Amino acid sequence: MRAAREEGLHDNGLIESRKFRVLTAEVENIYLTESEIKAIAEVDLKGDKHKCIARDIFLVGCYTAQRFSDYSNINEGNIRTLENGQSVIDLKQQKTGNRVVIPIRAELQAILDKYDNRLPKAYEQKVNKYIKEIAREAGIVDMVEVSYVESGEKKSHLVEKCELVKTHIARRSGATNMYLAGIPTIAIMKITGHKTEKEFMKYIKITEEQTAMELMNHPYFAGK
Asked: Is 23-200 in CATH node 1.10.443.10?
């Protein structure tokens, strides 16, 4: 409305009223736990090459916490060995231009070895289609509440978690699981490319129960 007014399409000043606001709702802010990611990795997909490729590429996203445009295009040019012998993925993020260096965990190395360090070409739409089916086969069918805005009102409904699994969930899952594993926030931000801790904390998905469990290990609550 403001853009239209600047273009001279109307002169309605009521849009500046405090009553004129945009309703927002949380959308598909889920992540996959380490056990759910493992379940996806263990689904038997022998005989279905396309599903297998989609699953492997999605898992690379979970292990690197990158965007699909970055993790789906990893090749031998992105892989190098540090002085300490640790293999890493070194890439420049397409969206931001940030350079990130990601340690390669064993599960990720196995996938890279499978494709000789060059992931096969896959389209995001196809990966989204297949990964939902694979997540269902992996038993990720818990009901999740999804909020949305309809006719100016906030509403919600329940949906099976597997139906919400998409390529961008891989990045969120990777970042959240790193955080839950106790990796310092600043170190994870070096991998994800987030500029501020506030921005990063909005991105990861931690439930109140998980926060309480983490706090129970703190000396203050553990009585140490």
From this structure: yes
